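Hello,

Our lab assistant flagged a job as stuck in the queue for most of the afternoon. It eventually completed. Since we weren't sure the result was trustworthy after the delay, we are filing this so someone can double-check. Below is the sequence as submitted and the structure that was eventually returned. Let us know if re-running is recommended.
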Amino acid sequence: MTGQPDRWAELTGGRTGEEYARRFARLAASGHDVHGEATFCEALLRPASRILDAGCGTGRIAIRLTELGHRCTGVDLDASMLAVARRQAPAQEWLLGDLARLDTLALEPGFDLVLAAGNVIPLLAPGTEPAVVRQLAATLRPGGLLVTGIGLDAAHLPLPEPTVTLPEFDDWCTRSGLTLLQRYATWSGDTYHPGGGYAVSVHTRTAPPPEETA
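-- returned structure --
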């Protein structure tokens, strides 16, 4: 890996879990739907699916998907976020780990869906993005789904400029044995138009990642 900290850690210092949780609690209290990502994923899943929430943060999505009957594991490198998740859902599996080294966590492979929402991909450590996509793909069963949300301009990122383009991301997916199925502009399923500032992508694992073909 590059040895650089991920962009999220640079932005937050790894100490914003409680603040992040309060923000979404305020949104929910004001009537906002805070379960858009979970609703989107639920529509793609069969009952009691296995889900890996990669970059799970405070566990908001994984907890909701568990309430809907799925089996969810959350992984994040931000201990302050995981502390909130563990407090809110102590019976669920929450793992502290680097997505670029997911194989060190001894996860049982064969997940039905891997989710990387909340701009996880754009906020990775520079240079680790292809490795992370490869690691995520390797946890999926054949036909399993990788679902991602990626900000493509400053208006959809907590950064002054984008760090990932869709052609780059799709290339990393292709090289990891993934094929694009669907792309939307929002978690509500709005149509994506080229040049849009946000993309929700659904890729499926159609081939083993390269390291599995040797």
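-- support follow-up --
The delay was a queue issue, not a problem with the job. The result is valid. The CA atoms of residues 6 and 126 lie 7 Å apart. Helices lie at 7-12, 17-29, 36-42, 60-67, 79-88, 129-138, 166-175.
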